[in-house]
Amino acid sequence: xxxxxxxxxxxxxxxxxxxxxxxxxxxxxxxxxxxxxxxxxxxxxxxxxxxxxxxxxxxxxxxxxxxxxxxxxxxxxxxxxxxxxxxxxxxxxxxxxxxxxxxxxxxxxxxxxxxxxxxxxxxxxxxxxxxxxxxxxxxxxxxxxxxxxxxxxxxxxxxxxxxxxxxxxxxxxxxxxxxxxxxxxxxxxxxxxxxxxxxxxxxxxxxxxxxxxxxxxxxxxxxxxxxxxxxxxxxxxxxxxxxxxxxxxxxxxxxxxxxxxxxxxxxxxxxxxxxxxxxxxxxxxxxxxxxxxxxxxxxxxxxxxxxxxxxxxxxxxxxxxxxxxxxxxxxxxxxxxxxxxxxxxxxxxxxxxxxxx
Amino acid sequence: xxxxxxxxxxxxxxxxxxxxxxxxxxxxxxxxxxxxxxxxxxxxxxxxxxxxxxxxxxxxxxxxxxxxxxxxxxxxxxxxxxxxxxxxxxxxxxxxxxxxxxxxxxxxxxxxxxxxxxxxxxxxxxxxxxxxxxxxxxxxxxxxxxxxxxxxxxxxxxxxxxxxxxxxxxxxxxxxxxxxxxxxxxxxxxxxxxxxxxxxxxxxxxxxxxxxxxxxxxxxxxxxxxxxxxxxxxxxxxxxxxxxxxxxxxxxxxxxxxxxxxxxxxxxxxxxxxxxxxxxxxxxxxxxxxxxxxxxxxxxxxxxxxxxxxxxxxxxxxxxxxxxxxxxxxxxxxxxxxxxxxxxxxxxxxxxxxxxxxxxxxxxxxxxxxxxxxxxxxxxxxxxxx
Lengths: 357, 386
Ligand SMILES: Cc1cc2nc3c(=O)[nH]c(=O)nc-3n(C[C@H](O)[C@H](O)[C@H](O)COP(=O)(O)OP(=O)(O)OC[C@H]3O[C@@H](n4cnc5c(N)ncnc54)[C@H](O)[C@@H]3O)c2cc1C
Prior knowledge:
CATH architecture of the largest domain in chain A: Up-down Bundle
Largest sheet of chain B: 4 strands, mixed
Strand order of the largest sheet of chain B: 1-4-5-8
Number of helices of chain B: 12
CATH superfamily of the largest domain in chain A: Butyryl-CoA Dehydrogenase, subunit A, domain 3
CATH topology of the largest domain in chain A: Butyryl-CoA Dehydrogenase, subunit A, domain 3
Structural class of chain B: alpha+beta
Keywords (chain B): FAD, Flavoprotein, Oxidoreductase
Order of helices and strands of chain A: HHHHHHEEEEEEEHEEHHHH
Largest interface: A-B, 54 and 48 residues
CATH architecture of the largest domain in chain B: Up-down Bundle
Pfam families (chain B): Acyl-CoA_dh_1, Acyl-CoA_dh_M
InterPro entries (chain B): Acyl-CoA_dehydrogenase, Acyl-CoA_Oxase/DH_mid-dom, Acyl-CoA_Oxase/DH_mid-dom_sf, AcylCo_DH-like_C, AcylCo_DH/oxidase_C, AcylCoA_DH/oxidase_NM_dom_sf
Oligomer: heterodimer
Radius of gyration of chain B: 22 Å
Family (chain B): Belongs to the acyl-CoA dehydrogenase family.
Strand content of chain B: 5-15%
Number of domains of chain B: 3
Distance between the termini of chain A: 23 Å
Bound molecules: flavin-adenine dinucleotide
CATH topology of the largest domain in chain B: Butyryl-CoA Dehydrogenase, subunit A, domain 3
Largest sheet of chain A: 7 strands, mixed
Shape of chain A: globular
Number of strands of chain B: 8
Radius of gyration of chain A: 20 Å
Order of helices and strands of chain B: HHHHHHHEEEEEEEEHHHHH
Protein name (chain B): Acyl-CoA dehydrogenase
CATH class of the largest domain in chain A: Mainly Alpha
Helix content of chain A: 40-55%
């Protein structure tokens, strides 16, 4: 029965996250961008909100609730949204697909009161790469596997305790849990255009020896597409939040700014761009909810996830672009968050696999 | 709880609409060719087309167990589309205005008639404040006397008449209020205009009429003023979106089938860089379709929540119409381009869909008008944005 009604619990989650985002994230976003890191106080606040830990409960965890969270967080700071999304994605993958032993080990690490992250390492430092065809390879050895390859755009690379590495095994994508301190693992910070707070990095796996139980799901292997689908929906939700931030900033700005005798917002080109921002954020939201609903109900979500991700990617860039344009030079300078959002929009819409729901 | 599944009853009704559409598709080319000069010369309405059940009658008779009556209606239109064009004939817009705002006496007199909606004039389309048709009360006879010209009136030449919007006499401040009247075809002073030739939607008859000292009795004057008449658009705009989405669905299915026949299958798992150009473009068009589907369903869901007469879903209705109107243009243009020159041939319906659906971003408020409405609401503006 078609319904857009949130549960009471979801309404509470949404308003709580909206508050955290407004009070704790927005004011810090520029600093995170300049520092190239998210403040530990912010991360701990998020950790204590219990979002990441909640992903360990297969029964109660809800992709629909998760997209609400990511939208709200990204409206404040997209880097924080993706930090949460990345850590959540790791926990979700282990919860959903890990063997009993794997679940026991990794989910125990969630018990502390400081932010503790595992992240997914999927993208590779290669132009025109496709996340579904990794060049990183795992070969079978006598008592386990050896992993070789390079991963890039890994969120919280320096802070992660574990990586879930997407790699080719016997010609198909599979996933392996790799300890960040294992021999042969080297991590290099690689700042990028946007999402600078996220601490993106490159991780090199040089003949890393893995035990048999490093393979997610052990004997059966992992359903990597499920991880990618969840991440596409998560990224769409983050793009939604960022789009909303631009829209909410541009409304008062263009109403106050007087150019050629009238407020900018009264000029039709600007007003229509603003109308488009509202229309497109609505559209992205319902596509994201629908894809999350498909994940939640166990339907095949690959198509809906791809469509939501693709659409959000096109529109968030357009929204940030028009937002920047309507601020003129003020959109280009660091005094306003717009130039950061513009960089973040391009980055968010090109990443893959970094924010599970 | 957020839910995008259809109920069993939704599915039954959608299946009915799909079946009608399938049959209508067989007649679509004939309808397009034979109705160039106006109304179809042969009967196409549903019992003749399908020989089955009229899906909209089925909905009206039993909407128990649907997601809601208005949601089911939109779902059905998305599944049947303009080729069947079933609903337009049965849900005359003017009749809906009469049904909602007429008195019992007026309904008794006009309720059995099919009434078009007569708003547009040669000098007044997007801007109804330019409407110059007028009415004058004749105290001697108790009649109203109407003068003016209406154009682009759907189905006027095949319906019984129209509910038409005209200016009344000036008040103390010199403002001329809007009034609505029932005007009947063939009535003295109502001039006939031949059906208008057009690029697409040819089975959808379009005409106009002139009014020269048309005398109508007092009972012909409805209580629907400007705002009331236009409030009906909130219900209808997402349905215009739904019809456009139906046609776009046909276009997308056709494109996907033809690509697959040439060995190009669509893989939704791959990343963008791994796709062929044709695959990538089709995926983007499908995404656009899904975007329009979402805002249309949301507008209808919100209508269900706040009630049809409420104004509280007007922005969502505009959003749905604006996104779907633009999507319809982009999807049909792009699909032809993906398929290449063979798609232009009249041997297929694709070129017809391209022509038909273009109107979606114009009538019932062009895309620009929807954006004015959305932006006004967001910015707290009224006349300062126009
Ligand atoms: C097939 C068909 C069926 C129709 N059925 C009916 C019917 O049943 N009853 C009826 O009353 N009318 C009907 N119409 C008329 C229809 O509603 C009008 O054509 C429509 O409202 C646009 O008006 P217009 O054609 O006069 O264009 P104009 O008002 O001249 O507008 C032209 C273009 O200018 C742009 N524009 C307009 N206003 C603005 C603005 N404020 N800001 C920026 N851009 C703007 C838009 O792009 C618009 O398309 C029908 C038309 C067609 C073609």
